Amino acid sequence: MLLIFQALEAILLRTASDLSHFSVVGMNIVQKLIRSYMKLIYAALYSENCKMSRGCLTLLSAMVAQGPDSARDVYSHFDFNNKYLPGLLKKGFKKVSRCRSSSSRCRCSRGGISR
Fold first, then answer.
1. pLDDT in tens, 12-29
2. What pLDDT, on the 0 to 100 scale, is given for residue 20?
3. For position 93, what pLDDT does the model report?
4. Measured distance CA(112)–CA(115) in Å, rounded
């Protein structure tokens, strides 16, 4: 699932920048994700796996980067009152020892997203 999130993120970032003539495609992807896959996005966001949470956060960022309309759509459909949302602050993206990732070497301690 992480690979799918990363592929969608890459597509959305490209349609928001140098492939702007495909911006309608990017908007359609965002709308489909919002309409059909928000439960999956929430599950990934609040996952025990910090890589999955980070991948989901970057996908949400790419969705918002499509433009003001997509940002409004994400804002209006995202549940900011979810009781697990504050737990992301304590997730341990900066400390590897707090990560519960199944991988033996999680890269949460790095400042940026590595691929």
1. 999 999 888 999 999 999
2. 84
3. 63
4. 10
Q: Closest Cα partner for 61 from 114, 5, 9? A: 9
User: Residue 82: what residue type?
Assistant: N
Instruction: Please give the structure tokens belonging to residue 102.
Output: 């199944």
Predicted TM-score (pTM) of the model is 0.76
User: Per-residue confidence at 59, pLDDT binned at 50, 70, 90?
Assistant: very high
CA distance 109 to 96: 6
Residue type, 95: K
Burial 13-44 (b: 16+ CB within 10 A, else e): bebbeeeeeebeebbebbbebbeeeeeebbeb
State the Cα–Cα distance between residues 55 and 40, nearest whole angstrom.
13
Show Cβ contacts of residue 27 under 8 Å, excluding neighbours closer than 6 positions. Answer: 66, 67, 69, 70
| Cα-based distances in Å from 87 to 13, 25, 48, 93 | 27, 33, 11, 12
